[in-house]
Amino acid sequence: MELQTGKSSGSLDVSESVFGTPFNESLVHQVVNAYMAGARSGTKAQKNRSAVSGGGAKPWAQKGSGRARAGTTRGPVWVGGGRAFPGHNRDFSQKVNKKMYRGAMRSILSELARTDRLVVVDDFAVSAPKTKEFKEKLSTLNVKDALVVTENFDEYLFLSSRNLYEAAVSDVASIDPVSLVGYQSVVLTQGALKQLEERLG
Questions:
Q1: β-bridge mates for residue 188, sequence order
Q2: Can you list the alpha helix ranges (DSSP code H) found in 126-185?
Q3: Counting beta carbons within 10 angstroms of the beta carbon of residue 157, is it exposed (0 to 12), middle (13 to 18) or buried (19 or more)?
Q4: pLDDT mean for each 10 residues of the chain (201 residues)
Q5: Is the pTM of this model over 0.85?
């Protein structure tokens, strides 16, 4: 399969198994949902009698007071006590095996290539952490809302793009299906493309 490069003319031969697979909408939907669910914190919780502070001393003697025996002031029937059946931290994560994840990534990349939303460049770098220079490079490629994927993490690129809501930078090890489908275009360096072929092929 051939991909258009970021130049005015020219193409690049790439792996058919990675960039030429049919689009599996249900698989992509499942993997994207699972990835987003895994990002949920699930930190809402309540305290039981052991988690509430205090209550370490027996409030009165076991016998002789005429009142019901009590060992703590933090039981669920006491004001300030713990809940009888408290809610616990919830795990929203969903299981996605490697075969499904790789299949979804191949499907997304293939669809990007088919719809001309994938641009391959020799290199993408800035001389300094300057947003202006980063935007100029994107303008040269005639893209605006874009995810730039590089072979390795580039601090200058990251700093140059972090206050742009319409652009982002990632290395191959950090890309995810949500980012790939969330931007209008994806800019790949040739080094990143080779790494993707090795990982997903």
A1: 120, 149
A2: 131-140, 155-161, 177-182
A3: buried
A4: 51 80 94 93 89 92 94 93 91 92 94 91 90 91 90 92 91 92 92 90 78
A5: no
